[in-house]
Write a structure and sequence with these properties.
Elements: E1 13-19, E2 34-42, E3 46-51, E4 54-60, E5 69-75, E6 80-84, E7 87-91, E8 95-102, H1 109-125, E9 130-139, H2 151-165, E10 175-181, E11 186-193, E12 198-201, E13 226-230, E14 238-245, E15 248-249, E16 252-253, H3 259-274, H4 276-281, E17 294-301, H5 307-317, E18 324-327, E19 338-344
Parallel strand pairs: 2-4, 9-10, 17-18
Antiparallel strand pairs: 1-5, 2-5, 3-4, 6-7, 7-8, 8-11, 9-11, 12-13, 13-14, 14-19, 15-16, 17-19
Helix pairs in contact: 1-2, 3-5
Bound molecules: 3-(2-carboxyethyl)benzoic acid (3EB).
3-(2-carboxyethyl)benzoic acid is lined by residues 136, 176-178, 209, 221, 223, 243-244, 246, 248, 332.
Length: 345
């Protein structure tokens, strides 16, 4: 398997997404790089921890059909890591990586609010004012909690309450993913940056998620469709973090029961999101991407039998050297069969 090197030359913060077996060692660090954090998509859940001095989030997303993969977030600056209660973090003075986990709970709302409030307080107090990218990995995402409320909706209440409590500090929501895992509990990790770096984007084809009507849950999901993180040194340059994107037009799921068409609609949504016109609309001039520029791609497929079809479409949509990982996990609406995310740079 070959991998694109195009992610590296632009400094800042970037990641590799590789099968665990393809990594020479779990501590691989190339000359001059520092590891800000690792995410292991493993065959069992585990508490986050400091591993060789750097944070590791472990989430249960590998099964017999998809092998474990590891994402390593790197920077070109020296990193300092530590613990914040049960959470772990690392910072390089410009970027922060933070990871935490909630074990299984009958109802998640209050614990999610507390987890998020602690994380946002920590982030703000260290001067990382610009949230760049968040991952919410939720076991049993479309299953009911102990009160009969869908766990994703339960989760969204706690998250929305935390963002409401920090509305002054973080008035705008960042790019995010909200996706299923294969074990109960919630894994959270995110990247944030020092002031003046992030521009949050919506998708002209989709209703902003925070404005979804209440038919999708008591509190709307708190995320933007993408976040552009301006480069520190090169004016006009940056990286675009693309949120988990699905076959949603306006606020409606489209192509119910048709995984091929859902995948194609998702790719059209990404195309509209990352193009120069949409970036310009959000004040980012002279930058524009294509679906083919998406890298560190994660493709989440609900039903195992759909993996070959989705894989086929993605293999023609993305260049051969794209870092791409497939996961067999539930998406946050029962009628969504596929979701895709990645990074353009
Ligand atoms: C959607 O567009 C699909 O709750 O953080 C995508 C990205 C989705 C992030 C989240 C949910 C989240 O509504 C689901």
């Amino acid at each position: 398997m070959s991998h694109r090197q195009s992610v590296r030359p632009l400094p800042g913060v970037w990641s590799d997404l590789r099968p665990v077996a393809a990594l020479p060692t779990t501590t691989e660090v190339r000359g001059g790089d520092s590891v800000l954090g690792r995410i292991t998509f493993a065959d069992a859940p585990a508490a986050p921890g400091l591993d060789d001095g750097t944070p590791r989030l472990t989430t249960h997303m590998a099964n017999g059909l998809v092998p474990p993969v590891q994402e390593i977030w790197r920077t070109d600056r020296p990193v300092r890591a530590g613990a914040d209660g049960d959470a772990v973090f690392a910072e390089d003075g410009e970027h922060l990586f933070y990871a935490a986990r909630l074990g299984p709970l009958p109802v998640y709302r209050d614990a999610v609010r507390e987890l998020y409030e602690n994380a946002l307080r920590f982030t703000w107090e260290r001067g990382y004012t610009d949230l760049a990218r968040m991952w919410n990995l939720i076991g049993g995402i479309t299953s009911p909690n102990a009160e009969g409320l869908e766990i994703y909706r339960d989760f969204c209440i706690g998250r929305a309450e935390a963002f409401a409590a920090f509305a002054e500090q973080f008035p705008q929501l960042p790019a995010a993913t909200g996706i299923g895992t294969l074990s109960p509990g919630v894994d959270l990790c995110f990247l944030a940056a020092k002031p003046g770096r992030a521009v949050h984007l919506e998708n002209p084809r989709q209703t902003p998620a925070y404005k979804y009507p209440s038919v999708y849950g008591p509190k709307s999901p708190s995320f933007a469709r993408a976040t552009f993180l301006r480069d520190l040194e090169v004016p006009g340059a940056g990286r675009l973090f693309v949120s988990g994107t699905a076959s949603i037009l306006g606020d409606d799921t489209v192509h119910v029961d048709d995984v091929a068409r859902q995948t194609e609609e998702t790719l059209r949504n990404i195309e509209a999101l990352v193009g120069s016109e949409n970036l310009r609309r959000h004040g980012v001039d002279g930058v524009g991407y294509d679906v083919k520029d998406l890298d560190q791609v994660k493709v989440y497929v609900r039903d195992a039998e759909d993996l070959p079809v989705v894989r086929g479409i993605c293999e023609s949509a993305f260049p051969q050297d794209t870092d791409i990982a497939y996961f067999n996990v539930a998406v946050c609406r029962p009628d969504l069969l596929v979701e895709i995310e990645g990074v353009c740079s």
